Amino acid sequence: MHIAFIGMGGMGQPMALNLLAAGHELAVWNRSKEPTQEPVARGARACRAPDDVGTADVLISMLADDDVTHSVVVESGALAALKSGAVWINMATVSVAFTQRMAQLCSDRQLRYVAAPVLGRVDVAAAGQLNILAAGEEATLDEVQPLFDVLGKQTWRFGELPEQAAAVKLAANFMLASAIETMGESAALVEAWGVGKGEFLNMMTSTLFSAPAYKNYGAMIAEDRYQPAGFTMKLGLKDVRLAQQAAESRNVPMGIAGVLRDSYLDALAHGDEKLDWAALATVSARRSGQKK
Amino acid sequence: MHIAFIGMGGMGQPMALNLLAAGHELAVWNRSKEPTQEPVARGARACRAPDDVGTADVLISMLADDDVTHSVVVESGALAALKSGAVWINMATVSVAFTQRMAQLCSDRQLRYVAAPVLGRVDVAAAGQLNILAAGEEATLDEVQPLFDVLGKQTWRFGELPEQAAAVKLAANFMLASAIETMGESAALVEAWGVGKGEFLNMMTSTLFSAPAYKNYGAMIAEDRYQPAGFTMKLGLKDVRLAQQAAESRNVPMGIAGVLRDSYLDALAHGDEKLDWAALATVSARRSGQKK
Amino acid sequence: MHIAFIGMGGMGQPMALNLLAAGHELAVWNRSKEPTQEPVARGARACRAPDDVGTADVLISMLADDDVTHSVVVESGALAALKSGAVWINMATVSVAFTQRMAQLCSDRQLRYVAAPVLGRVDVAAAGQLNILAAGEEATLDEVQPLFDVLGKQTWRFGELPEQAAAVKLAANFMLASAIETMGESAALVEAWGVGKGEFLNMMTSTLFSAPAYKNYGAMIAEDRYQPAGFTMKLGLKDVRLAQQAAESRNVPMGIAGVLRDSYLDALAHGDEKLDWAALATVSARRSGQKK
Amino acid sequence: MHIAFIGMGGMGQPMALNLLAAGHELAVWNRSKEPTQEPVARGARACRAPDDVGTADVLISMLADDDVTHSVVVESGALAALKSGAVWINMATVSVAFTQRMAQLCSDRQLRYVAAPVLGRVDVAAAGQLNILAAGEEATLDEVQPLFDVLGKQTWRFGELPEQAAAVKLAANFMLASAIETMGESAALVEAWGVGKGEFLNMMTSTLFSAPAYKNYGAMIAEDRYQPAGFTMKLGLKDVRLAQQAAESRNVPMGIAGVLRDSYLDALAHGDEKLDWAALATVSARRSGQKK
């Protein structure tokens, strides 16, 4: 299968390398050139521009957000350069509204659109152990499943409409943000009574909450270790906002999402935009006067 | 060690049976008589009244809340009947303010107070696998540790002040309630986009959130299975309120706690007070018009 | 009518003076003696203790909260000293639960209980221009109406059950706190875009919001003038808590009340407990980084 | 002064008629033709299309939202048809981000942009008694002040940057929505204790809250009178969202705005989108089980 892969960021590059290692023919593009060097060294063709996708059967994009994806894939002409019947797999976290528009656009152009955002950070991507949240026409999903099998350890299908996977991914990130805020509020409560947050979180994440999300973020919160950022506060706010938009367009009130939004804004107003999004947990400490 | 155990409810009775099985001499009391029959059949002495605690070295109480504990242990004369130097281990979930008052009362009467609320439901208590959250003077904790070793699989110590364990327990229940509400809001979001909440929650609790709390409550939410109640909505609200009170007395804002409180009230206003507290997750569905 | 008036605080003393000026026979008591001097100089009898209420037909109390009222009126023996058929008019802001208990207590003792909390600060009390929010048996209200006519410009009756007036008063204070928080959030929003909050609030309180509550608190917020406190932050939080309790016991979710509670706690955690409760408006400024 | 007035809706038409009555030369346009008949009957010229603005010195637009304004004023060519130095006065409620973009666009094209949203509904517009919230270059504001004097009773200037007036208008609508929600929560509280919401709101809006906003909406809430809608729930949500966006782009947490958003969504999910936005007050009644 001829694949064009656009977006060699922290996630995209190791994913592309895995596809190369599995024997796929790959053309790659990235805004800055440096991240394409390793894939090219391992046999990928470097695209001169996004629209130099050649005869790709599948275009995979892994870009920052709606706007960047639109600019690089649509406005640049990459989509227009695809041959009829090709598949665009968007693996980034984008809005449901954007997903709906892109699915329509592909349909209008005799292309097929698959939404396949992922769970997992850079190391998980490198290990080919992502959880892939996919939605699109079943036959198309079957067709690209071999690629998902290279990139992830499991593919979860959520329906025929690409926006369904987008909604699932936003709900997943909402759950993570809520877990972080919840640990932050709990930590502030026990600290106020003289119990170390580390002791508390260690107990919780060793018992009822012994899940990767809690263990990972719980340890960061216990140690106040928010740099380097695996995923920034600014991106955390963006994803909460996208979850709220997805909810708003279907009249779903989400009380905790509103709390998260305000906590993120509080943190950004205090200069924390580049910290890891686990730093959301520091807002309760500051509000309660435990941290200056 | 001579032990008096007051409160043979769903949790208390199996705990008492475990102590008997481990060879401890036990006197038991319960408001209604039926639950004391099995412990008595296994060798416990039945107290005629709470103040018939005899020469107990240790009084363990496992009662519903602050008021019941005060009524049964203090007003009934049980505490006054203890000999000087005896230890009262309160294993129920009570308020930090009540804990502080009881610790002071014991201190005034040459008694020793230990707060040791637990994590785990009835089956876990029966298996002697509770997580015990203890606070009190270190020497006293050392002294009663053999009892904890019978009742639980692990004892976590949180300080010399009994209220520290009370605060930890309330923070733990807050985290559970937040997890339930978070799953409820997420479920409403994905359902609004046509994704089954069961599929979504199965994926989440198989991956990032593969912890007992999420697996257990996630399955109940997925199946709308809220009866029989392991822990009722009414008790859920009570514990959120206690967490808020503990937070308020130390000036800790907890945004999510406010959301939880309102969701519980919404549910109670709709007649759900006897359902399992996982039914908190249905509030988002009702508010978004997905459930009548 | 023989009146005993307990509580010569900022509100109580001018109210007592107005009753004296209207020709009523008055016995007064206050924990500290100084505030009773002026009423005594104008003809009031000084009680030696709360239970020295003599032959009073009516006992009026104006005390800080539930606990002080219980201590001074009930525990001290004042209530027990009243003759059968006497009326206790509680004009303070207390909880609905306390109001219910006091009404029951009076009923048990052949006394009559009237709840009559007021709207208006010290200067309004001095001018006899209070708005009196009354509830109790209609015949009793008719009987004491002449006293209300001296103390206030208007009496609003809200039912036969004293707790109804208590609930109304708590709802009124909730509306005030919400107005303050709303102005605080709005002020932070416009300031963030370079518009002076004073200009904004002046416009709003000159047009759609030209009400005493907004003009008064709007001016304080515009000028950051929170001292001397007419009503402290600590009392503001107390009243929001009482409103939440009144709501909780009837299963009424109040989303804004939750926001208010957290804002108060945030302010108290930053040392503002003695400021006027209008300082609630500063929390949004601090959270958004506009104020250090 | 030659004026082109685009948007003959409920607000725009009476405003245009007032300008005609004051002797101004007017060209009018509206998507549907009927609303232009009365202005034309009174001497206005009917534009064939938005770009038929002729030699207008001033273009006034009063359109539904960002998108309609962009479509009718920018995409249609109206703006491009204006002569250099002309002034575009946008009197609608639009986002701050859109306001910034339009101001830049005008600046690029040697046009001048004034933001002048208004407070007041249709009857106030007809009476020429609007409050006009203006921002733009001072000299330009001076130049168009005579028009504002015809349309409103007072013009409030908030700075040289048009977005400042946009932010003020959104803050004003936020304050209105908060007042409605606050009355709704209070009404649910007192009703839960058996006090009629009408009695309560009448007292409040006759005393501390005797402002037009409270009297107007308080009466609607007291009577459950939400039709015909002066301003719909859907538009209410839109404006809260715009306030949240304006706040988010400057890192301002607004706790009450989050509550409002969820209340609106709850109402829309229950089919109330066409009711007057005062129907926000019914959400608390429904959540507390007082209304089915």
UniProtKB/TrEMBL annotation, chains A, B, C, D:
6-phosphogluconate dehydrogenase NADP-binding domain ranges (all copies): 3-155
Coiled coil: none
Gene3D superfamilies to which the protein is assigned, alphabetical: N-(1-d-carboxylethyl)-l-norvaline Dehydrogenase, domain 2, NAD(P)-binding Rossmann-like Domain
Ranges for domain 3-hydroxyisobutyrate dehydrogenase-like NAD-binding: 165-282
Domain of life: Bacteria
Alphabetized InterPro entries for the sequence: 6-PGluconate_DH-like_C_sf, 6PGD_dom2, 6PGDH_NADP-bd, HIBADH-like_NADP-bd, HIBADH-related, HIBADH-related_NP60_sf, NAD(P)-bd_dom_sf
NAD is among the record's keywords: yes
Annotated protein name in UniProt: NAD(P)-dependent oxidoreductase
Naturally occurring in which organism (per UniProt): Jejubacter calystegiae
